[in-house]
Amino acid sequence: MAEDLTKAARKTLPTDRVAREQTSGNFIKAISAVVWKDLQAEFRSRELFLAMLVFSLLIILIFNFALELDIKTRQSVTAGVLWATFAFAGTLGLNRSMAIEKDRGCIDGLLLAPVDRSAIFFGKFISNLVFMLLVEIIVLPVYSVLYNINLFQLGLVLVILLGSIGYTSVGTLISAMSVQTRTRDILLPILLFPVAFAVILSAVKASGGLLDGLTFQEVLFPISLLITYDVIFIAVAFMTFESIVEE
Amino acid sequence: MQPRPVSLKILDIFSVVMLGVAAYFALVKAPTELVMGAVQRVFYFHIGTAWTALLGFLFASVLSVLYLVTKDLKWDRYQVAAIEVSLVFFLITIALGSIWARPAWNTWWTWDPRLTTAAVTELVYIAYFMLRQGLDDPDRRARFGAVYALLGGISAPITFFAIRLYRTIHPVVIAGSNPEAQGGFSMTPSMLTAMFVALFAFTVIFIDLYWNRIRLGNLQDQVEQLKLKVTM
Fold this sequence. Notes:
The structure holds 2 protein chains of 2 kinds. Chain A is mostly helical. Chain A has one domain (2-245).
């Protein structure tokens, strides 16, 4: 009897491990498939990226005249202007990226796929993040040229990356909810901004500090707050996404 | 329709009485504060509503988890009730705080960490009701509500830390950032009594309103089901 058990154990163990490796491989494959699908669709239509980019430039234009960005003001408000721009352009992208899935019935196809639902979340999250980063990559040099400020510092890039991760992680989750409501076009920013308040605030603080010439050590606290926020909200989104998309 | 249970009726009467007692303690029994004068009396109700509202929001986050694990709509009704009553209580807290701040700080509002966190928290739960309003399917409404209430409950403390960090680096605001720093006072024993009476009274009132709201939610649910039966 005991011998049978060990035999059985010996038999099942390796296959178990293979199965587990397969599922973790599948998980990554599923994520990259979703990301690839989004990027390819975007590459062909260029709707989202262009809209986000033009919108960001228009926001900067409005801020320019609303705040009269002369040399003195610029010093103190650059971080705030940048993050307000990213946040507004971000909602535009988040809304659109989920609305496309919903309108063309694509989300049903995704949900039918025999993969873990959280893989779909991570796929959407990563593609949203890529769009947001692409916009930021263009907005930063444009802003640098327009206002003669050097925005290309390693610390600032890190802050922008961390801030965008936090913003899009909770944004992807909330946009998956808001597209299923009747008032979906107006609801996303209303739901997202109060929850993402902390991430915007710490990102503005950290980037403002770095632009003021503070060292990385001095802005370590807002940066660690950003990391905390990112970790917590990715974990929460990972755990709750399933209950948002299930029918 | 079931009649209101007797224990709820008793609690209704008790909470009205407690409101009167708390008002008596705050307005008559407690001594007038030396520096701020009569406006300090707002403080007792301010603390009473704030305490119950914050506990209510915390409780709602726990109910979120319970709902998401069990998928029992009962928890959803409990959550809506908790958030609705807390939202009103918290609004009262903010309004009373504003009334006190005008003479004490010489402004209705300042962007101090507690005030900002309070405003953001209030906005989160207003958004919660807007989200629910946009959804017709009760299951989906419950699921989304639970997830959003959980997000709000988790983000509130992080927001508080984020704002604190913002203010500690700007020393200009520091003096105003701490309620004890401007307009603080040390309480006499009779003030303490008035505060505890107010705390107890508002806890009772909260439980009473909460109970009534749950009962209302259950009745609403029955009406919806009856309507469904009629149309089928």
